[in-house]
Amino acid sequence: MHDTTSTDTGLRAGRREWLGLAVLVLPTLLVALEINVLFLALPHLSVDLGAGGVQQLWITDIYGFMVAGLVITMGTLGDRIGRRKLLLIGGGAFALLSLPAAYSTSPEMLIATRTLLGIAGATLMPSTLALIVNMFRDDTQRGVAIAVWATCQFAGAALGPVLGGLLLEHFWWGSVFLLAVPLMGVLVLVGPVLLPEHRNRDAGRLDLTSVALSLAAILPITYGIKRLVADTTTTVMPIAALVVGAVCGVVFVRRQLRLDDPLLDLRLLSQRSLSLVLTTLALAGVAMAGTGLLVTQYLQTVLGYSPAESALWFAPMGLAVALGVTLTPVIARSVAPPTAIASGLALSAVGAALLTRLDSTNGLGLTVIAITVLALGTGPLFALGTGIVVGSAPPERAGAAAAMSETSNYFGGTLGLAILGTVGAAIYRHRMADAIPAGMAAEAAQNARESVAGATATAADLPGVDATGLVHAAHDAFASGINAVGLIGGIIFAVLAILIATRLR
């Protein structure tokens, strides 16, 4: 039986803490929904506002950019000024900003409000997790609370596109932003009654130079990776952004190691368990995001489902993570955390391996089974791993530790989109090199080699036999890309399972 250390009844949470957790679930759900709910609304708002291609990219990306760039700063700021105070300020700002976002009259107005929403969103996740750590001092109860928090995070991400689709069937595109108003209204009204305040009274002043350096590192790296994935024809600017971000990142790290009161306490990484779990969270994010990207494209471009239908068939991935997280506290009663995490990662390796069996015809059933098994196995990692990260820091640094966990997972996902997305695209182009019919115009051939959509459009101008052959070749080539990404994901999960089983104590 896995033993817990906090068994004193004086440490055990009561009804107020559990009601407080119910309140903290609201911003957790909101952040997860906000990232994906715009997925289906983008075509509608683009037509209504007249947004061009570049403006559409900024509308979708700027929120995530700001959250990624400021989550470290906000986690540390909460430690200094008070986690409840920062959460309520961020929640109130999110509710107010959602109104101009919903009623935007131009692309520029929506981009500006999405930027401010990203700043407000960055306050929510580290504050909620840090407050959970402070409210639940008993190890077992804290594990259950973190599992509930993580369940809402992943369930919200899975249901975001589905909920967005339902809203768009009955209302205009701005309705997807108005979800925040009632959720944050409850938080602001009830939070002061149910949530305790926690701050580090000995913390020094916020180092604004470190804040600037963290933004100068994270934003260019995030931008560079996203642009490399989105546009393989233009590489100079994305690579330049990556270089600038990397240089600023080195300067940021050196500054943190010199300061007595750093923005991000990198000395915590000297704890082997913390650094191992953060690495595992990041690499699991790589595998999950990369396979998720290819699977959603496969559902639409190869199997021919609409975006709404694809979102519905892809939802089991997020729901399976939520289920795995929910079951983890039960598993942890009889299994030590390293064993639970390693076993789950081994299961994820099996799910990823199933993707190597996909082809262009055996599609939907195997795809849903594969992503469900893959996601289910990550549940113990996200539940117990997050607990290990925030539990490794002293209580006064809980916000900074929560920010480290969020940043690790976010960057893992961003890298997964770039690296595994590039692998899938490269295999597609390689397989399509010999599938182009003789005599095809150079521009048309290039379009067919770039994507399945390009091959389908090109096939529309070809004779029947050539058109059918080109489309089949494109579908087979894309399936080969998924096979390779599934193999890479399986290897990542298998290696992580071994490392956790042998190195985590």
Q: Kindly report how far apart the N and C termini lie.
A: 16 Å
What proportion of the residues form beta strands (DSSP E)? under 5%
SSE class: mainly alpha
What is the CATH class of the largest domain? Mainly Alpha
Order of helices and strands: HHHHHHHHHHHHHHHHHHH
Largest sheet: none
Poorly predicted tracts of residues? 1-9
How many individual β-strands?
0
Shape: globular
The CATH topology name of the largest domain reads Growth Hormone, Chain: A
Roughly how many Å is the radius of gyration? 23 Å
Descriptive account of the structure:
The chain is mainly alpha-helical and 505 residues long. It folds into three domains: 13-202, Growth Hormone, Chain: A; 207-262; 272-505, MFS general substrate transporter like domains (Growth Hormone, Chain: A), CATH 1.20.1250. 80% of the residues lie in helices and 0% in strands. The chain has 19 helices and no strands. It has helices spanning 15-36, 38-49, 53-81, 83-102, 107-135, 139-170, 175-178, 180-194, 208-230, 236-258, 272-302, 307-331, 337-354, 363-377, 379-391, 398-432, 442-450, 452-459, 464-503. It is globular. It starts with 14 loop residues before the first helix and ends with a helix.
Give a quick precis of the structure:
The protein is mainly alpha-helical and 505 residues long.
Write the SSE topology.
Elements: H1 15-36, H2 38-49, H3 53-81, H4 83-102, H5 107-135, H6 139-170, H7 175-178, H8 180-194, H9 208-230, H10 236-258, H11 272-302, H12 307-331, H13 337-354, H14 363-377, H15 379-391, H16 398-432, H17 442-450, H18 452-459, H19 464-503
Helix pairs in contact: 1-5, 1-6, 1-8, 2-6, 3-4, 3-5, 3-9, 3-16, 4-5, 4-8, 5-6, 5-16, 6-12, 6-15, 9-10, 9-16, 11-12, 11-14, 11-15, 11-16, 11-19, 12-14, 12-15, 13-14, 13-15, 13-19, 15-16, 16-19, 17-18, 18-19
